[in-house]
């Protein structure tokens, strides 16, 4: 495991929080489109390749694909 400075830790945490906020907003839109209100099913984000930016959001039986290179890289970086 590499040594992180405080600044790198804060920066990585902020990127992860921003990424989760965006995913949460997208997931809420998906849930609202499906049921009219946010359901209790979990929302899962799957980043297949951070370089291409492909992200799959899964909610219940539904899957939505989006492409956002920066968000995909931020999520992948936060998961390390």
Mean pLDDT: 74
The main pleated sheet reads as: 3 strands, antiparallel
Rg measurement, Å: 14 Å
Unreliable residue stretches: none
Portion of residues within helices = 40-55%
SS strand fraction: 15-25%
- CA-to-CA gap between the ends? 10 Å
| Arrangement of strands in the largest sheet | 1-2-3
Number of strands: 3
> How many helical stretches?
2
Could you state the order of secondary-structure elements as H and E? Answer: HEEEH
Whole-number tally of structural domains: 1
| Structural class by secondary-structure content | alpha+beta
What is the overall shape?
Answer: globular
Structure explained in plain terms:
This protein has one domain (6-78). Helices cover 50% and strands 24% of the residues. The protein is built from two helices and three strands. It has a three-stranded antiparallel sheet, with helices on one face. β2 (54-59) and β3 form a beta hairpin.
